[in-house]
Amino acid sequence: MAERPIRVLVAKPGLDGHDRGAKVVARALRDAGMEVIYTGLRQTPEQIVSAAIQEDVDVVAMSILSGAHNHLFPKVVKLLKKENADDILVVGGGVIPEDDIPSLKEAGIKEIFTPGTPTTETIDFIKKNVKRK
Amino acid sequence: MELGERLIKGDKRACARLISLIENNDNRAIEVIKKHYNKTGNAHVIGITGPPGGGKSTLTDKLVKLLRKNDKKVGVIAVDPTSPFTGGSILGDRVRMSDLATDPGVFIRSMGTRGHLGGLSKATKGAVNILDIYGVDYIFIETVGVGQSEVDIVKSSDTVVMVMVPGLGDDIQAIKAGIMEIGDIFAVNKSDLDGADKTALELEMMLDFKKYDTWRPPVTKLSAVKNEGVNNLLDNIINHKEDMLKNENFKLRREKNAKLEILNLVEEELMEMVHKITDEHEGLDTIAKKVALRKSNPYTSRDEIIKLIKK
Predict the structure, then answer these.
(1) B91, B93, B106, B113, best to mutate vs chain A, most A CBs in 10 Å
(2) For chain A, is the Cβ count within 10 Å smaller at the N or the C terminus?
(3) Quick check: B98 and A38 CB within 8 A?
(4) Preferred mutation among B95, B110, B131, B142 to probe A, highest tally of A CBs within 10 A
């Protein structure tokens, strides 16, 4: 039997209304053979975690452009832990200042992809770091 | 606690895990279904089908919300196509159901077709079984956007809602065979658009062409986005099951569906055997090469493979 595809939830937490970046990444992951569950704009951390659990995903990939990353990204990690789902790989992207990255990584976001990152880099990172259940 | 026990206690993570396992044809999920199959059959399974962009997800969202007002537990399986080239997919039905994500009484699962034709994925029926054991009152199966002949949904559901929109073609489309024959209920969505009355009328005429002993599919005009007419549709859905229960039809439909489910499973297992047994011999690629070069032909190849299986 063929190996099962990696399942990724692509989500836009927070209030900014720009999901071009998230859609480009979703499309790239699709072309890399992954199943991408796309949830749309303005998702709360609770909605993201609830969807991640029901969809039994391997990865949660979030994009933020509004500047609320320091609050929302760690909150998703925290809620996943609360649900005993901290085996899910969490990555983030968007307009995120260099200075914020170390603390986000400390909070459990495994990698941050800033503007200009080739999509291949994101794909490789996911393939290398995903924990298959 | 094992997954099956957690599932009957209504544990969401166990339910999610088991659906992944059945998607991968994993024995652990199959064992759970075998053990608890006697607990299934209570949920009303509703298929939502129709063309791409017809509003199936939006309509499902609204129907689920109505049922939640009556405190019914609901499961949703939303199927979207898998790329035949990369095996990847974008499963985007959740976008229209965001509000339902955190509702503890709703379980939504997106599935890729993973190479299966017919509008559903191979594991859709397995996922329905798992949601049924999990203990929901209603299960919605939303198919991929369909064309003319993706009729698998009728084999997997008690009630099929065919979602139409105005402007997709004339009355010739309505009398064609295939998808137009499987609706138990027709919904004309986006009924605020021009041509909605005409579409509804053409459907009525198409339906009147046939004689009905019992249920005659109703046509409901509605607007899912504006949440108009959705309650009428829900009434029709519930009436359809009640109507079938009044006579033998419900029993007959479930028997027919069970038969098709068994045959599908046997077919899948046989195909697995074909791949396994040809791999052990010269391999399917080698056989195909010979046929392509006209050194053999498809029929002789078939006979040879069947002979290997029978041995």
Answers:
(1) B91
(2) N
(3) no
(4) B110
Residues of A in contact with B110 (CB under 8 A): 35, 37, 55
Q: How far apart are CA A61 and CA A72, in angstroms?
A: 13
- A2 belongs to a structural domain: no
Candidate from A29, A51, A83 with C-beta closest to B94:
A51
Q: B188-207 burial string, b = 16+ CB within 10 Å, else e?
A: bbbbeeeebeebbebbeebb
Residue with tokens 């699709």: A30
Query: So where are chain B's domains?
Result: 40-247, 261-310
Q: Which residues of B touch A132 (CB under 8 A)?
A: none
pLDDT of residue A8: 97
Which of A2, A44, A55 lies at the smallest CB-CB distance from B16?
A: A55
Q: Dihedrals φ, ψ of B6, to 5°?
A: -65, -35
CATH of the domain at A69: 3.40.50.280
- Which pair of structure tokens corresponds to residue B220? 């409901």
Cross-chain residue pair B86–A32, CB shorter than 8 Å: yes
Interface touch B90/A32, C-beta < 8 Å: no
Say if the Cβ atoms of A54 and B92 lie within 8 Å. Answer: no
Its ipTM equals 0.89
Quick one: CA dihedral A13, A53, B261, B64, positive or negative? negative
Confidence of residue A89 (pLDDT cuts 50, 70, 90): very high
In sequence order, which residues have a C-beta less than 8 Å from that of residue B131 and are 6 or more positions away?
Answer: B15, B19, B43, B75, B77, B107, B109, B139
The total domain count for chain A is 1
Chain A closest CA to B182's CA: distance in Å?
29
B145 Rama sector, left if φ>0, alpha if ψ -120 to 50, beta otherwise: beta
Residue closest to B145 by CA, chosen among B23, B237, B46, B55: B55
- Per the structure, the complete domain to which residue A94 belongs is given by 7-129
- pLDDT band of residue A1 (cuts 50, 70, 90) is very low
> Is A21 inside a domain boundary?
yes
What are the chain A neighbours of B87 within 8 Å (beta carbons)? 2, 5, 33
- Indicate whether A88 belongs to any domain: yes
Report the C-alpha gap between A8 and A6 in whole angstroms: 6
Question: Is A26 inside a domain boundary?
Answer: yes
Q: How far is the alpha carbon of B250 from chain A, nearest alpha carbon, in Å?
A: 31
